[in-house]
UniProtKB/TrEMBL annotation:
SUPFAM superfamilies: P-loop containing nucleoside triphosphate hydrolases (SSF52540). Belongs to the ABC transporter superfamily. InterPro entries: AAA+_ATPase (IPR003593), ABC_transporter-like_ATP-bd (IPR003439), ABC_transporter-like_CS (IPR017871), P-loop_NTPase (IPR027417). It comes from Granulosicoccus antarcticus IMCC3135. Residues 6-233 form the ABC transporter domain. The keyword Hydrolase applies. This is Putative ABC transporter ATP-binding protein YxlF. It comes from the Bacteria. Coiled coil: none annotated. The gene is yxlF.
Length: 302
């Protein structure tokens, strides 16, 4: 059963004259991963730091799992992977993780077992005696995620978990988040909207410190009738002309993100006639989905 994870009322944070979070009120529940998005400087890292209790608020209210951020009662329940997680390059992975496990109050035996568990989870048990300086960037990131999973926290905040990571490692990290989501709620901040759309069920969108929207990431009512299509190399003009002539298709246009956005009387019927057109013409598609993409909803102008 889901329960309240984070509750903010009129939350603001100022750094000197800079208002980094401006009167944010939101309520998030435990469950599927939550996407935290917004342009550079929107206040994402500030919100994460406030949730973790790394910094104090300027005004308003915030509670995390029913407690005050940073409270002793939250110890072991919440973990964060900062944007630039740092591991000591000179100490072996196992030693560092055992140290963090001991800090959480585990005894030697528990720490050893838990380090083994989290390293198995991120598929890097073979690196237990390796120094971080001998690991790749992607592997170090996975070790940092292993660190965040120590003690099985109920909430894990991941700031840009796949930034600068190659596609196979990024996929491993996404799979890991999915697998762990049964027991842990993840809040994932990223600039990769495609990735967040595949991973998360709800989204918190900040802009210039203000909360613009917060809610489920499902097809919204005003998205009905829209189809998003990603094609392989197909002549753009020819496709747009042919699509606009199809029965039940009202409009076809190229979105700012390079996909096609098609408006149909009915999205099920519209998808079928589009698939038929692609098949008749021998045009290949990469992806077809109902509704607008997250990117189009946030930044598109249709
Ligand atoms: N320690 C600080 N001192 C002064 N200003 C800060 C500090 N940290 C953040 N800011 C400012 O607060 C605002 C929000 O920054 P924050 O790092 O929370 O944004 P962000 O959404 O995480 O951005 P990015 O996507 O670039 O990581 C920005 O204008 C930033 O310059």
């Amino acid at each position: 059963m889901s329960e309240t994870l984070i509750e903010c009322q009129g939350l603001s944070k100022r750094y000197g004259s800079q208002l980094a979070l401006d009167n944010v009120s939101l309520s998030l529940s435990t469950g599927e991963p939550i996407a935290l998005i917004g342009p550079n400087g929107a206040g994402k890292t500030t919100l994460i730091s406030l949730i973790c209790g790394f910094i104090g608020k300027s005004s308003g209210q915030i509670s995390v799992l029913g407690g005050k951020p940073g409270a002793q009662s939250l110890s072991g329940q919440l973990a964060a992977l900062p944007q630039d997680a740092l591991l000591d390059p000179r100490l072996s992975v196992g030693r560092q993780l055992r140290f963090f496990a001991r800090l959480q109050g585990m005894n030697r035996r528990e720490a050893r077992a838990d380090v083994q568990r989290v390293l198995e989870t991120v598929d890097l048990l073979e690196s237990i005696n390796t120094k971080p300086s001998d690991l790749s960037h992607g592997m170090r990131k996975r070790i940092a995620i292993a660190q965040a999973l120590l003690g099985a926290p109920r909430l894990v905040l991941l700031d840009e978990p796949t930034a600068g990571i190659d596609p196979p490692n990024a996929k491993l990290i996404r799979d890991l988040i999915r697998q762990q989501s049964r027991d842990t709620t993840f809040i994932v901040s990223s600039h990769n909207l495609d990735e967040l759309e595949r991973l998360c069920n709800s989204v918190v969108y900040l802009e210039k410190g203000r909360l613009i929207s917060s809610g489920p990431l499902v097809v919204e009512d005003n998205d009905q009738g829209f189809i998003t299509l990603r094609l392989a190399t197909v002549p753009e003009d020819e496709f747009l002309e042919a699509a606009a002539k199809l029965p039940g298709i009202r409009q076809a246009s190229r979105s700012a993100q390079g996909d096609y956005l098609i408006q149909a009387d009915d999205d099920m019927h519209g998808s079928l006639v589009l698939m038929q057109l692609l098949s008749d013409k021998g045009w290949r598609y990469r992806q077809i989905s109902r509704g607008k993409s997250l990117e189009e909803r946030l930044y598109g102008n249709s």
